[in-house]
């Protein structure tokens, strides 16, 4: 929870130490409201504080520079529908109206339900991937009627009605032939607002807003709204803006240095996940006597902040242990260049079950150790596709966590980097690190789940 912003941060990220990304993330914000995670007061803050741009609520805010529109710089109609539904739950008819406008504008303008739109223009031209009659966009469009206008919620033993209708949508609306279990409902709703005055079932007013699920046959439901809007429900309309580019620092002697980012007015330096200094320079002197996990963020004049950079580790050489893939393992390959040692191992889901890669390490001093793996994955670009390779790391037979071999580019099999790191306490003595494919490691692609594994790296961090 980001108190001064009034919504949840996007996620925790990093390698050995985690920091909060304070970007808003529209779908996550909406789901936190709908599932009751936020509670009532925070839910209202989320709806009134999360940034909304001219053409709708963007997947994230602010945007990332130099990344084509897909999830970045994008409005997704199905996300907009979740936002409308969450807005209705908090009684914000203004926010509901704004969300309706976003979705109906694009559906009417393009005569179909597009998958996503460029946030900067409101057009689908320029998006990385798109399609007509996109299933979740169509479902979102229908949900505006069922879940918001008529306020339908299906429960195990009842159907419940909590309509939210902006004043601009006032009037009589009908939903005929609505099939629910063994019943067929003919529903008429009149008026506007975020509360109902009364609900009439087959000519008789009922108490509350629930109708039992054990009814049979045809029934008529009439809902009269209170014709009152919640005036205390602001919307945080903002220009669609881009954060500064994320710095790419590197270690040079006893300093970390980076190129100045466009539109950056200052830089924030972090060590081991904690802020330590703000500077206008493009360098920072480090303590060369101890392990340090350094990151840098760029900030513009208005306070918009980039992501924290990829961590730059200053590690005394004595703290690093490298174990090559060929040490104790078979089926070593060397078709692609850039590996270290004698070769690498092809991690291939098609060899599941059975494929395991085992590394043996002798820890000379008890402490906290960062464990990661040097790898390549040329199965796809950085911003789309679904061929991230995933494996499970076990230490001495016990699951330690998931290892993520993210895509690094199309056919970029000579572009080597490091996986996420797993921080663990290790006792003095011999330990076994095992990389395996488990059913929980299936990715969205399902079929392709491959990477090249070069070596394991174990770093003592305290």
Describe this structure in words.
With 462 residues, the protein is mainly beta. Helix 1 runs antiparallel to helix 2, helix 1 runs parallel beside helix 3 and helix 3 packs antiparallel against helix 4.
Strand content: 35-45%
Distance between the termini: 29 Å
Helix content: 10-25%
Query: Sheet with the most strands?
Result: 7 strands, antiparallel
Question: What average pLDDT do the residues reach?
Answer: 94
Low-confidence runs: none
- SS-based structural class? mainly beta
List the total number of helices: 5
Number of strands: 36
Radius of gyration: 27 Å
* Large-scale geometry: elongated
Key features of this structure:
462 residues; mainly beta; 7-stranded antiparallel sheet; 5-stranded mixed sheet
Write the layout of secondary structure elements.
Blueprint: E1 11-14, E2 18-21, E3 24-25, H1 26-34, H2 39-49, E4 51-52, E5 60-61, E6 74-75, H3 77-89, H4 93-110, E7 117-118, H5 135-149, E8 152-155, E9 158-161, E10 172-180, E11 183-190, E12 196-201, E13 204-205, E14 210-212, E15 217-225, E16 236-237, E17 250-252, E18 255-257, E19 266-271, E20 274-279, E21 283-285, E22 292-299, E23 312-314, E24 320-324, E25 332-333, E26 344-348, E27 356-363, E28 367-376, E29 379-380, E30 389-395, E31 398-405, E32 409-410, E33 417-418, E34 422-426, E35 429-436, E36 450-460
Parallel strand pairs: 4-16, 11-15
Antiparallel strand pairs: 1-2, 3-5, 6-7, 8-9, 9-14, 10-11, 12-13, 12-15, 17-18, 18-21, 19-20, 19-22, 22-23, 24-36, 25-26, 26-36, 27-35, 28-33, 28-34, 28-36, 29-32, 30-31, 30-35
């Amino acid at each position: 929870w980001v108190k001064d912003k009034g919504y949840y941060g996007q996620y925790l990220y990093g390698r050995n130490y985690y920091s909060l990304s304070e970007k808003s993330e529209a779908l996550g914000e909406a789901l936190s409201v709908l599932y009751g995670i936020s509670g009532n007061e925070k839910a209202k803050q989320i709806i009134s504080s999360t940034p909304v741009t001219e053409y709708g609520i963007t997947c994230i805010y602010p945007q990332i520079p130099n990344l084509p529109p897909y999830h970045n710089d994008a409005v997704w109609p199905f996300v907009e529908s979740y936002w409308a539904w969450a807005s209705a739950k908090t009684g914000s008819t203004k926010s509901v109206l704004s969300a309706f406008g976003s979705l109906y504008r694009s559906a009417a303008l393009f005569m179909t339900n597009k998958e996503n739109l460029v946030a900067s223009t409101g057009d689908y031209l320029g998006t990385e991937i798109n399609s007509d009659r996109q299933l979740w966009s169509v479902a979102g469009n229908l949900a505006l009627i069922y879940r918001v206008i008529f306020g339908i919620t299906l429960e195990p033993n009842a159907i419940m009605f909590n309509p939210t209708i902006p004043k601009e949508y006032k009037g009589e609306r009908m939903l005929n032939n609505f099939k629910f279990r063994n019943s067929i409902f003919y529903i008429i709703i009149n008026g506007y607002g975020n509360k109902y005055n009364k609900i009439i079932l087959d000519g008789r007013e009922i108490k509350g807003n629930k109708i039992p699920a054990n009814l049979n046959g045809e029934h008529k439901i009439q809902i009269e709204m209170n014709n009152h809007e919640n005036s205390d429900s602001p919307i945080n309309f903002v220009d669609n803006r881009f954060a500064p580019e994320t710095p790419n620092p590197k270690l040079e002697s006893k300093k970390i240095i980076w190129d100045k980012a466009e539109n950056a007015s200052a830089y924030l330096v972090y060590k081991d996940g904690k802020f330590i200094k703000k500077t206008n320079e493009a360098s920072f002197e480090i303590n060369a006597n101890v392990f340090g996990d350094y990151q840098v963020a760029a900030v513009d004049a208005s306070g918009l902040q980039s992501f924290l950079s990829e961590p730059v580790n200053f590690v005394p050489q004595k703290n690093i242990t490298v174990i090559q893939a060929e040490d104790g393992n078979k089926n070593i390959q060397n078709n692609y260049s850039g590996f270290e040692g004698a070769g690498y191992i092809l991690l291939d889901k098609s060899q599941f079950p059975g494929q395991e890669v085992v590394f043996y390490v002798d820890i000379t001093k008890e402490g906290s150790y960062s464990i990661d793996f040097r790898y390549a994955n040329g199965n796809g670009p950085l911003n789309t596709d679904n061929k991230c390779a995933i494996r499970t790391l076990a230490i001495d037979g016990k699951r330690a966590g998931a290892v993520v071999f993210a895509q690094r580019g199309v056919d970029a099999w000579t572009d080597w980097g490091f996986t996420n790191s797993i921080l663990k306490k290790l006792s003095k003595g011999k330990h076994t690190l095992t990389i395996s494919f488990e059913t929980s490691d299936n990715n969205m692609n399902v079929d392709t789940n491959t990477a090249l594994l070069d070596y394991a790296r174990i770093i003592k961090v305290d």
